[in-house]
Amino acid sequence: MASRGFRVKVDGITALVGKLKRMSVGDRTAVERELDIAGELIKTTIQKSLGQGPWKPGKNNRSGEGGPPKTDEGTLEGSINADREGLVATVGTSNSYAARLEFGFQGTDSKGRKIDQGERPFIHPAFVKLKPTITKRIRAAIIAEHKKVSKG
C-alpha cells in the first residue's frame, strides 16, 4: 500500500498471528485461502458501497455525512486493494483523500482552504458487515481441515 494511504490497526492482532503461526500446515493453508477470499469480499463490498445514491454529473451531489462517499470518476473505487502476506490480510487504498473521507477532516488543507467535512465511512462499515461471515468461514475451514486429517 502506498505511503499516502492509511491502515487500520487491530488490537491483539500480533498475539492472534502468533497463535495462527503455530497451526498445522493444513490449517494455515485453509486460513490463508479464507483470508484471500475475505479480502476480496471486503474489497468488493467497499467498491459497491461507493457512489450509491442519486449522483448526477455536473450537479452538486455531495454525499451526506455518515454514509459512503459518492464517486464521479471511479478513482476511489479503483484504488481499493486487497492483499495477503502470510496470515495477515490487508484491505485499503492508496488514494490520497481516502482517510479524509473515512474519518472526516477539519482544518486547512494543502491548498489553504478551510475544510469542515464530516466522515463518510466506507472501509470500516464493510469490515463490520462482513466480520461474522469471515469468522464463520475461517472457523469452518479449520474444522474441515481437522476432519480431513483425522480421517487419515
List the keywords.
two-stranded antiparallel ribbon, 5 helices, 152 residues, 13% strand, alpha+beta
Walkthrough of the structure:
With 152 residues, the protein is an alpha+beta fold. The protein has one domain. The protein is 48% helix and 13% strand. It is built from 5 helices and 4 strands, in the order H-H-H-E-E-H-E-E-H. It has helices at 13-21, 25-49, 75-79, 98-103, 124-151, and strands spanning 80-85, 88-93, 105-108, 114-117. The strands form 2 sheets. Strands 1-2 form a two-stranded antiparallel sheet. Strands 3-4 form a two-stranded antiparallel ribbon. Strand 1 and strand 2 (88-93) form a beta hairpin. The longest helix has 28 residues, at 124-151. The protein is elongated, with a radius of gyration of 19 Å.
Number of helices: 5
Described by strand count, sense and barrel closure, the largest sheet is: 2 strands, antiparallel
What is the mean predicted local confidence, pLDDT?
A: 82
- Could you name the ranges where pLDDT drops below 50 across 5 or more consecutive residues? none
**Strand arrangement, largest sheet?**
1-2
Oligomeric composition of the shown chains: single chain
How far is the first residue's CA from the last residue's CA?
41 Å
Radius of gyration (CA) equals: 19 Å
Structural class: alpha+beta
Strand content: 5-15%
Number of strand elements: 4
Whole-number count of domains: 1
